[in-house]
Amino acid sequence: MHILGENNSIFNQFIAEIRDEKIQKDPLRFRRNLERTGEIFAYEISKTLDYETKKTITPLGEVEIPVLTKMPVLATILRAGLPLHQGLLNYFDRAENSFISAYRKHGKNEQEFSIKLEYMSGPDLNGKTVILSDPMLATGASIITVIKALRQFGKPKHIHIVSLIASSEGIINVKKGLKQDNFTFWLGAIDDELTATSYIVPGLGDAGDLAYGSKQN
Does residue 109 sit in helix, strand or coil? Predict the structure, then answer.
């Protein structure tokens, strides 16, 4: 597990602005800050990937430089995950991509819900490294459901789970629900509390609504 917000860096400036209810009123700023954090996550994850040395020809000679052996596959959960995904894609700019539409379907009350998948696309995942991004990891139900669904495309070598804000409970649930998968958490911060309706406190609110406007249920 990697928690980027534990160390002092510009990353925490972006988290502070993303959480700030006043700055959140500017959707462009909110999306751009999510994108920036995605770029920082991409840089940090890149240090763990496989490299090979290749010869590069310059105007004055040649030099050997370590480059990625293979690009990871970038996956995200629509719609809130799109700005974070874009930040990752800015750095892994030749990556294959997977998109999943998932949402909470509530039962008789707001406290009961299941995760419904309506759309999913993606490349062959067998033996590949996957980076799955979603700004908020609350109960972990969406991440668990999506990763299990992604298995229809093949078995990844490794999965990097990227979330800006996670709850302690959600992390525990994901660890229990994905025991057979090889995965790593990349988180901005961990908040301890969930509301009765499973929203993270202090969290930041509804990332999808803040990025793209409110929606009808």
Answer: coil
Q: Which domains does the chain have, with CATH numbers?
A: 2-52+64-212 (3.40.50.2020)
DSSP-derived 3-state class of residue 145: helix
Distance separating alpha carbons of residues 76 and 160, to the nearest angstrom: 11
- Find all residues with CB under 8 Å of 4, minimum gap 6, and list them: 11, 40, 41, 44, 186, 187, 188
Token representation of residue 116: 């419904």
What are the C-alpha distances in Å from 195 to residues 63, 97, 110, 203, 206? 55, 33, 11, 10, 13
The string over 50-79, giving b where at least 16 C-beta atoms fall within 10 Å of a residue's C-beta and e elsewhere, is: eeeeeeeeeeeeeeeeeeeeeebbbbbbbb
Q: How far apart are CA 176 and CA 173, in angstroms?
A: 5
**Exposed e or buried b for every residue in 7-17, given b needs 16+ CB within 10 A?**
eeeebeebbeb
Percent of the chain with pLDDT over 90: 77
Task: Please tell me the predicted confidence (pLDDT) of residue 63.
Answer: 97
